[in-house]
Give the backbone structure.
Amino acid sequence: MTAIEFRNVTKAYGNTTVLHDFSLTISKNETTALVGESGSGKSTLLMLSNGLLDADDGSVQVMGEAIELADLVKLRRKMGYAVQGAGLFPHMTAAENISLTARLSGWSVDKIDQRLGELFALVELDRSCLDRFPHELSGGEQQRVSLCRALMLDPLLLLLDEPFSALDPLTRRSIHEEFLRIRNLGERSILLVTHDMQEAVKLAQHIVVLREGAVVQSGTVDEVVTEPADNYVRRLLGTST
Amino acid sequence: MIRRMLIVFMMTLLPQTVIALTVGSKNFSESYLLAEIISQSLEAEGFQVDRRFGLGGTLVCYEALLSGEIDVYVEYTGTIEQVILKGSDRHPAVMEINSRLDRRLRILGSLGFNNTYAMAMKESLAEQLGITSISDLANADELVLALSLEFLNREDGWPGLASLYKLPHQPLGIDHGLAYQAMNSGSIDLTDAYSTDGDIERYALRTLKDDLGYFPEYYAVPFIRADMNERAVAVIENLVGLLDDSRMREMNAEVVVEGKSFAQVAASFLQSEGIAGREQADTQLLSNVLRNTLVHLKLTSIALLLGCLVGLPLGILAFRHQQLARVVVYIAGLMQTIPSIALLALMIPLFGIGVLPAIVALFLYSILPILRNTITSLITIDPVLKRVSQAIGLTGSEQLRYVLLPMALPGILAGIKTAAIISIGTATLAAFIGAGGLGEPIVTGLALNDTRLILQGAIPAAILAIVAELLFELLERLVVKEHMLLGELTS
């Protein structure tokens, strides 16, 4: 089964073609990391997955639905989304940030409260953070709140755009632990975009290495680590200088 | 209670329904006084009079008369001939003017005096330089001339005078009401005056002899609509021929020098002529200021409300489309470059005079700050947050309501505040087109050279602007969270 399928996708920004006749399948219920340097097309792929960008040519299927035909609002609520720097709305408290889509989906106050409790336990956030505004939270707390927001509606698919890159190493390590807990929690497909191969190795089950809009290597973590396809992959792994 | 009974009593005495007439005047003292005389004599005969005094210039008055916004004002034969009829007859007769006027309008016989232009300078300076006639000016090119803008630009004003007398001066433009003070303080030497100006006595000025006979006749005539009620016409015709030059100059001096009110001077004139003049009760200073302030508030708040109703939705519609946003802001900006007095004048052919055109003009001014701030505040929101709001599955209107507008709110409020303060300032000019408000004492004060009166308008207007500023700050504190005001966004 597939979570996302890119079929012969072409995408250009002005005169710069990022993807040309690109095809890739992301499997369901596992964590796939898209790894590459900037300009490799990894973020473009993520934004094509939830319709933030439209493909110039080809098609994108998400959970069996062609994205160009889908009701995007409905589809996006089945996909959690988190970005680098958390992207929390500054005028809302942590609780309001997390529960916004739930409130708009008509959840009861009790149900929201219960879910907030679960999520805070999951990412080890203190309940006192609930009523704080983003600027009153540390970077790590902000990113945990951001993860909670992405998980609020218990989505089948989680799209993460370098969510841990802006954190200091210590905070990153502890939030990685929580991510792994989230990963193992149930059946969920996760697409993680990162430029950090170490992070991909630690968090993902499947790794897709990208370079200038093409797949250099696609395989399980073991395969990529033990048999890097070329020097580019090796360099990303840090095993060659 | 007693007053109300009296009114009811008087109403029963009147044969039919009361006829209401609107009397206009230009924005200088003599025009106010003549309009007041006409108003009181009409009121004495049972007409109800709406006073629209201090209209800004000949064309404003003419357009107002043509459109029926006013029924009568006093104009001068020379002005009608040259400015309105574009003719060049220096001695136009009443019959002759009437035959050429728009058929909807006509003038009555002259009130008696000829208020022509005169060049005036300080008696002492004239004595010292030995200047008695305009011809003498040709050799005195060191004199500083400052002329009223109307005189400076009209055919029968400065251009013709300069070429006939071969005058070398480069005159400045100045508001007529300010010219005497400027001359008194020595910053200018010479200005244009009206031959019946009370100020000529007040400031000890010499009027120079028009030795080449340049200035045309400017007999004061009631300028009325041809369809005016016949009884009213008869009342106004009673005034024909009653005022000669010196009488008029004396009465003007009573207003500008002795500080009597127009109503007082008009009433005593009508009484002396055996026409029962009814002096209006002198209204209290405080209630005057209050009334003007309320009108001012009405003008600005309605204009501001309309500005918000148009500017906010337009800004919200336009911000997603960069090209459209640019065009919209450009057009709104263009509107802002029209000088306010010109914009007000442009409104007259479309909306007449009074409150409506003033509100429309203020509304046009208020759009730009509201629109521009709305668009910029929405455009400059962190693109990551815009992307997130889309990606977590908010519809377009949910994005606006829950994310974009709350984040743009401080900027949008600042735009509305700017619009409010611009409106309060600009609305003082609305008095020129008869909209009243705090500009009314300012305009009258300028016409009378009365600083106290000017301050009666200027001080409340300034206070209003400060109060508006404070109220918006309060509003901001109430609806915007503190950390959003300080700009402390997520790190």
